[in-house]
Each structure stands twice: as structure tokens, then as C-alpha cells.
Specification:
Chain B: It comes from Algoriphagus antarcticus. The complex is a heterotrimer of chains A (285), B (251) and C (281). Chain A has 285 residues and is an all-alpha fold. Chain A contains twelve helices and two strands. Chain A has a single domain, classed as Orthogonal Bundle (MetI-like fold). In chain A, a hairpin with a 3-residue loop joins strand 1 and strand 2. The longest helix of chain C is centred in the first third of the chain and has 35 residues. Chain C has a single domain, classed as MetI-like (MetI-like fold). In chain C, helix 3 runs antiparallel to helix 8 and helix 8 packs antiparallel against helix 10. Chain C has a two-stranded antiparallel ribbon. Helices cover 73% and strands 1% of the residues of chain C. The mean pLDDT of chain C is 87. Chain C contains ten helices and two strands, in the order H-H-E-E-H-H-H-H-H-H-H-H. The chains are: A mainly alpha (285), B alpha/beta (251), C mainly alpha (281). At the A-C interface, helix 1, helix 3, helix 4, helix 5 and helix 6 of A face helix 1, helix 3, helix 4, helix 5 and helix 6 of C.
Chain lengths: 285, 251, 281
């Protein structure tokens, strides 16, 4: 009897958790639909200006969001995969014992602290380097997001490289290939699905990050022409405007609508990541 | 007097503090098949892998003694490991095709060793024919190698080794993961290949050793107990241990 | 020879990347600690801010963050652990549980600001809890749930089935098996996951932006229905929104030092528990 009761308690907690998490999705969708009942979705996606009260278009925000996130991947992907390769294939065990905590520490630093350094350290550096007035721009955000995505990319890539069966390495070495040829031509290609999963999860992290981009990218809500322009991502827009917007106005619903789009984007990227991670697991068997 | 291809002199091998091979000396004759037999853990595979220096990969392995191919000292720093592994090929216990197509499994090492591009397709065709695999795969060279059956995979691994024209082929229980029919095909292949290559094979299967070997070495606890022609070992072993092992009393 | 040169290049590439990653951490820590440590004193930690935030300490922000994390823990840990126990010990492997697991994994990847929006809509507005430390704590709790469920389930999975069978075969009920054998054995693993999750929650800013955090409150918040100050938000406001940004920079650095130290301390505790646990096995 006690056993049955507790089973129901655990089950109840489980279902409540899932219900709560599931309602996030419905809350977003409900409010987004409220928005689209007032504003034409075509204007929303094709307009060129985000200017509350006159024009709600997600387009410049989307361009900004992807510009910063993809810029960060250009930096973080090669760096992350090469570091993972160094960790799992080259570094002796003692060095690994030092390097792994370093990566964990990097992962632990709160995003607001990274954004702070974007303002006080990286911003002035960028403005001096390129001779521009304002160092708070897409480049700044990309570099900071790269640093934040690195631990994710390194950890998952390292798992992927480690899970390549040793027999592949032995086969290659026994044919007279050296360590490097084996690493670049056999091990890394064999780990590719896992590496793609790592990149996807890193990208998801970069797309969804708020504080860093809010602090370091300048927040100009126009379509950026390059990495030295100020940008304003979806997350930063929500952070800036949600605090001041009256409850259940068009503007309020508009912020939920862009959040819903962001949610769908990060959901699809997570699913893609999972798909590739599963392919790696199958390949193991 | 037969010509010696590969030899070990006073070979001692340690993993950490554990001694795996004890003062072992042996000569492998050219263009013959030599089987290494003995109970599990006697050091057969370890001996095999010391010739193509696969122990270089384990940091706690330590080797003493002389290992030679012809007159070349295999552990002399002046000789490149990759060159040695190209000349001494290896086939593993479990078929381990690379995660690439059939064709790429063979072309991979050819590219690594800078064979002229134009010659590669021809070399691959020859190697596949030599390994009795050509007729089965010639239509689907682009197919992933893992799609082949276990026996085909192992013949592919042999082809992958043969395509480099090595002088020696080391085989570490190449049939232990295969069914009897695939095993038979590999044995036929081994007998054909010995014309051109010196073959050393580790096996647990006494019938197999009898079917394919010219010479047989019996090892026990890291030592070479008896080394003789196949006929002598199986019909007239001199050592009591050998007799017991072949008779199936232990191992 | 050409090959050798190429391989030296490969080696440098890998080593260089790794060193660069380490350099990032080095620069971050060096800049923050070298400029922030001079601002740290007992007064800084134990005093209220004064003179429009240009003087004084950060006590309310420290207290706020601790209180916030405490509420997060009270909410997320029982539900998270119970959910993981249900999934791993009771639920049969079915399409349904697979869907649940997949959604939990995906929810762990949902941007934190979306949790903030949800907290605003659910706790602040629908449940009428107002902008308060309670609303913010519950919001962070939601954010933490997926991580706690995932890490707890991993800890439970590491316990061999033979251990469950051993007690069940003695006629012990499943609940008693979980209570007396499974949970105690999995405790270090669960604790590690919980602490790491809380260290992440303590550093979060986006989810609390609209659910209750304030730049300045009078005194230390003691009621869970009030707005509160928090370290990460304090750092954000000092570095972007203050009227005398240059003047308060040392205070911002000091706040960053306190925040990072707090997070690192939690990580070190988790690290110690984990390494003790490993040597036991």
C-alpha cells in the first residue's frame, strides 16, 4: 500500500514536471497566435524594420541573431574540434587532468561576466584595432559567444572522437599511416556525426544567449551590413523591451511571437544535433 | 638451408612491471606460413605485434632485444615506423574495415604512401583479385565497406594489406570471428599468398594450423617451447607441454 | 622531409588551439581578478549601497542571490529528482517515456530568456505572484528542472541492476529499495548534478529580468513576495545602465569577482564530491 502510494507520488511529480515544461510551448504559441491575429505574418517576416508601434518585422533581428551566432561558430568550431583532438589523441593523461578543469571553469563563468568583459576589455580593443568609434558590435558578440560555446563544443567533440573504435586507428597505423594522417583522415571523419552534433549544440547555445549579446553588440535594430556594425538579436530585443511594455498589447504579443520563432529555431537545431548524435551511436554498434 | 625473413633475438617485452615475453628467439623463414599456437595469454599476439611496432602505441610497453627483417633492425631510430608498417602488413582478429567505401579502403594507404594516382585503380583491382574478392564486389566498389559480410570484410582487410606489396603479412587470429565457409576461403587465400609473402599467423584452431602451416611455433607463458615443421609438431612433438596442448589437455 | 614539416605544423595547430582556449580563460580571470580584488573588503560584502550606488557594498545583492538560489533549490530538486526516479525506476520503456526524455533534453537547450517570458506569463501574471523573489526563484527552478532530471537519471543509471534485484529478491518493496539502496548509492552523483545546476542558475540573468529582480531596494529583502537584488543583474546594471558608469567600474569589477568566486566555489564542491565518489567505486 505504501509502495503504491509512493509510486503515485513519484508519478505525479513526473507528470507535473512534464506538464509545466509542456505548457511553455503552449504559452508561447498562444501569445504568438494572439499577435498574428493582429499583425499580418507576411509583414512580420518580410518587413525590414523592427520599430514598436509602427512596424513589427523580425527580419533585421533574425539577420542579427544569425550573423552573431554564425560568426561565433566560425571561430569556435575549428578551435573547439582541434582542442578536442588534442585532448583525446595527443595530450598525455597528466595534461588532460589539467586541461579538463580549465574547460569546466570556462563553462562555469556566468554570461553576464563575459558580457561585462565585452564592454570593458574587448570593445575598446576592437575600436582601437579597426579605428572605429564603437567597439560594441557583431564581431564583439561573436568572439564572446565563441568563448561561451567552446566548452560545449570541446566536450561533445571529445566524446565523439573518443568513441571512434580503436580498431580504425590500428587499421590505419598498421597500413603505415602516421599518427597525423590517421587523426585527420580516419579518426576525425569517423567522428563526424558526433562533431556535427557538437556544433549544433554550440550553435543552439550561441543563438539563445541573452546577456552577452545584450551587453556587447550595441543593440542597433537595423539590418547590419557587416561584423563591425551594431546589431540587436532576438534575445536582446526581448530583454530590452519586455520590461517596459504594457500587459497584452500588440507590442507585448510581438515579443512573444519573436520568442516563439527563436524557440522553434533552437528546437530544430537541437533535434538536428540529436539526430547526428544518434547516428554516431548507431555507427558504434 | 631456408632463407630467414624475420627474426627475434633475446626478446623481452614488458607491460609496466609485467613481463609478457621472456628471452624469446625465433627465425621466420621466407615465403612460408608459420603458425603461432599456444594457450590464451601466452604472448602470441604480443610477439606478432612487436614486429610491426604496434606496441609503440602503448606508453607502458618496454622492449629489449633485437628484432630484424632481413638485415634491417626494426627498432633502430633511423628506420621510419611508417615504412616498416608498410613493408610488414597486418590483418587483425576482428575485421576492421575503415568507415569508408570499399575502393577507399584500398586507396587510402596508397595515397598515404604517395603511389602515382594513375596506377591506383589497377593496383586495387589486382589486390582484390588476389584476395578472391573482385568478382563479389567489382560492381559496387563505392559501397561502404561495413555493408560487406564478415568474411568479405576480412578478405577486404587482407586486400588492403596486399595492395601495398608488403614483404611480410602478420595475421592475428584472422578467422576467429568468421563462420567455417568464410574461414575456408581465407585459408585458401593464405596458401596462395605465401608464394609472394612471408606469413605469420596466430591461431587457436589446431586443425587450421595443420591445414595451412609450413612451420609451427608453440608458446607458453611468454616463452617459445617448441618450433619445428608442421609435421613434426603435430605428429611427433618433442616437448611434453606441446604434446599436452595439442592433445587438448589444457588451453 | 616535406611530410615531417607538415606534421610539425599539424602538431602546432592542435597545441596552438588548446593554448588559445586556455588563454581565453586566463585573460578573463586575470582581468576580472586583478581589477576586482582591490574593491573587495568586508565593507564591500557587508554594507548597503550608498550615494546612488557609487559607494558602499553589495550586501542586498549577495543576500538576494542566496535567497533566490534557495527557492530554486526547494522547487527544482524535489520535483527533478522525483521525476528522474519515476522515469528510471518505475516507468517502463515505451514510446511515451522516450518522448518525455526527448522533450526534457530539448528543454535543456531552450534559451533562458524564454524561461523568463514563461515565468512572467505564468507566475507573475497568471498566478498573480507579482514580480518577486518567489516568481524569479520558480522561474529559475523551471530552467533547472531539465538539468536536474538528466543528471539524476544518469546517476541512477550507473547503479547496476544486480543491486536492485538483490534487495527485491529479499522481499523488500520497490519503494524501500529506492529509499534504502538506490537513492543513498546515487546520492553523490545526484548532488554533483544539483550543485552544478544551481551554480548555473545563480549566475543567470535573463530569466529574472522580468520576474522580480530590481536595481535597488531599500534594505535587505526578507519577504519572498518582494522584489530583490541579485549579483548578476547588479553587474549588468552597473556596467550598462548606471548614470556614472566610469565611476562605478571598480564596484562592477568587485561584483564580478564575488559572482565568479561564488560560482567557482559551488563547482569546486561538486568536483570534490565527484572525485571522492569515483575513488569509492
Amino acid at each position: 500500500m505504501i509502495d503504491w502510494t509512493f509510486k503515485q507520488v513519484f508519478k505525479g511529480a513526473g507528470f507535473l514536471t512534464i506538464a509545466l515544461l509542456g505548457s511553455i510551448f503552449f504559452m508561447l504559441m498562444y501569445n504568438a497566435f494572439s499577435f498574428f491575429s493582429r499583425i499580418n505574418p507576411i509583414d512580420f517576416f518580410t518587413g525590414i524594420q523592427w520599430d514598436p508601434d509602427t512596424s513589427y518585422s523580425i527580419f533585421p533581428l533574425l539577420v542579427s541573431t544569425f550573423l552573431v551566432a554564425i560568426g561565433s561558430m566560425v571561430i569556435a568550431v575549428p578551435l573547439g574540434i582541434l582542442t578536442a583532438a588534442f585532448l583525446s589523441e595527443v595530450a598525455p593523461e597528466k595534461l588532460q587532468m589539467i586541461l579538463k578543469p580549465v574547460i569546466e571553469m570556462l563553462a562555469a563563468i556566468p554570461s553576464v561576466a563575459i558580457g561585462f568583459l565585452g564592454i570593458v576589455l574587448l570593445g575598446p580593443f576592437i575600436s582601437k584595432l579597426f579605428g572605429i568609434q564603437n567597439g560594441l558590435n557583431a564581431l564583439n558578440g561573436s568572439i564572446l559567444l565563441a568563448i561561451m560555446a567552446l566548452p560545449t563544443i570541446i566536450t561533445i567533440s571529445e566524446d565523439a572522437i573518443n568513441s571512434v573504435p580503436n580498431s580504425h586507428r590500428e587499421a590505419s597505423l598498421a597500413l603505415g599511416a602516421n599518427k597525423w594522417e590517421t587523426l585527420f583522415k580516419i579518426t576525425i571523419p569517423a567522428a563526424l556525426p558526433g562533431l556535427i552534433a557538437a556544433v549544433m549544440l554550440g550553435l543552439g547555445r550561441a543563438l539563445g544567449e541573452t546577456m552577452t549579446v545584450l551587453m556587447a553588440t550595441g543593440n542597433a535594430a537595423a539590418i547590419p551590413k557587416g561584423f563591425l556594425d551594431s546589431v540587436r538579436t532576438i534575445t536582446a530585443t526581448i530583454a530590452i523591451e519586455m520590461g517596459e511594455v504594457p500587459y497584452q498589447t500588440t507590442h507585448y504579443f510581438a515579443l512573444f511571437a519573436i520568442a516563439a520563432i527563436l524557440f522553434l529555431i533552437s528546437l530544430s537545431i537541437n533535434f538536428l544535433g540529436e539526430y547526428f548524435a544518434n547516428r554516431l551511436r548507431k555507427f558504434d554498434a | 638451408m631456408e632463407e630467414i625473413k624475420l627474426s627475434a633475438r633475446n626478446l623481452n617485452l614488458f607491460f609496466g612491471n609485467k613481463q609478457i615475453l621472456k628471452n624469446l628467439s625465433i627465425d621466420f623463414p621466407k615465403n612460408q606460413v608459420t603458425s603461432l599456437i599456444g594457450p590464451s595469454g601466452c604472448g602470441k599476439s604480443t610477439l606478432l605485434r612487436s614486429f610491426n611496432r604496434m606496441h609503440d602505441l602503448s606508453p607502458d610497453a618496454r622492449i629489449e632485444g633485437k628484432l630484424k627483417m632481413d638485415e634491417m633492425d626494426l627498432y633502430n631510430k633511423a628506420n621510419s615506423v611508417t615504412e616498416i608498417r608498410k613493408r610488414i602488413g597486418m590483418v587483425f582478429q576482428k575485421p576492421n574495415p575503415l568507415p569508408k567505401s570499399i575502393f577507399e579502403n584500398l586507396s587510402y594507404a596508397l595515397h598515404i604512401h604517395n603511389f602515382p594516382k594513375a596506377e591506383i585503380p589497377g593496383l586495387i583491382e589486382n589486390a582484390l583479385k588476389e584476395s578472391f574478392l573482385w568478382d563479389e564486389v567489382k560492381e559496387e566498389l563505392k559501397k561502404p565497406a561495413v555493408k560487406l559480410s564478415g568474411g568479405q570484410q576480412q578478405r577486404l582487410c587482407i586486400a588492403r594489406t596486399v595492395v601495398l606489396r608488403p614483404e611480410v603479412i602478420l595475421m592475428d587470429e584472422p578467422c576467429s570471428a568468421l563462420d567455417p565457409i568464410s574461414t575456408r576461403k581465407i585459408e585458401d587465400l593464405i596458401l596462395k599468398l605465401k608464394k609472394d609473402y612471408t606469413i605469420i599467423i596466430v591461431t587457436h584452431n589446431m586443425q587450421q594450423a595443420q591445414r595451412i602451416s609450413d612451420k609451427v611455433a608453440f608458446m607458453y607463458l611468454g616463452e617459445l617451447i617448441e618450433f619445428d615443421s608442421c609435421e613434426n609438431i603435430f605428429s611427433n612433438p618433442k616437448q611434453e607441454l606441446t604434446k599436452e596442448y595439442i592433445g587438448g589437455h589444457f588451453g | 622531409m616535406k611530410k615531417k614539416l607538415l606534421h610539425a605544423f599539424d602538431w602546432l595547430l592542435l597545441l596552438g588551439s588548446t593554448l588559445l582556449v586556455c588563454t581565453f580563460l586566463g585573460i578573463i580571470l586575470w582581468d576580472i581578478f586583478s581589477k576586482g580584488l582591490p574593491a573587495i573588503s568586508w565593507d564591500f560584502l557587508l554594507q548597503y549601497p550608498t550615494d546612488g550606488m557609487t559607494q558602499g557594498g553589495i550586501l542586498p545583492a549577495v543576500v538576494g542571490t542566496v535567497l533566490l538560489t534557495f527557492i530554486t533549490t526547494l522547487f527544482a530538486v524535489p520535483f527533478g529528482v522525483a521525476c528522474a526516479v519515476y522515469l528510471n525506476e518505475y516507468a517502463k520503456h515505451s514510446l511515451f517515456t522516450n518522448i518525455i526524455r526527448a522533450s526534457i533534453r530539448n528543454l535543456a537547450g531552450v534559451p533562458s530568456i524564454i524561461y523568463g517570458l514563461f515565468g512572467l506569463a505564468l507566475f507573475v501574471q497568471a498566478m498573480k505572484l507579482g514580480t518577486s523573489v518567489l516568481s524569479a526563484g520558480l522561474t529559475l527552478g523551471l530552467l533547472s528542472l531539465p538539468y536536474i532530471i538528466i543528471t539524476t537519471e544518469e546517476a541512477l543509471k550507473r547503479i547496476p541492476n544486480s543491486m536492485r534485484e538483490a534487495t527485491l529478491a529479499l522481499g523488500v518493496t520497490q519503494f524501500e529499495t529506492i529509499k534504502d539502496v538506490i537513492l543513498p548509492k546515487a546520492l553523490p552523483g545526484i548532488l554533483t548534478g544539483v550543485i552544478l545546476t544551481l551554480s548555473r542558475a545563480a549566475g543567470e540573468t535573463a530569466p529574472i529580468l522580468f520576474t522580480g529582480v530590481a536595481f535597488y531596494i531599500n534594505g535587505v529583502s526578507t519577504s519572498i513576495n518582494q522584489e530583490f537584488m541579485a549579483l548578476p543583474y547588479h553587474l549588468y546594471m552597473l556596467s550598462t545602465q548606471h548614470y556614472a558608469i566610469e565611476q562605478v567600474r571598480p564596484l562592477a569589477y568587485g561584483t564580478a569577482v564575488v559572482l565568479i568566486t561564488l560560482v567557482f566555489l559551488l563547482n569546486i564542491v561538486a568536483f570534490i564530491i565527484r572525485s571522492k565518489y569515483r575513488t569509492q567505486d
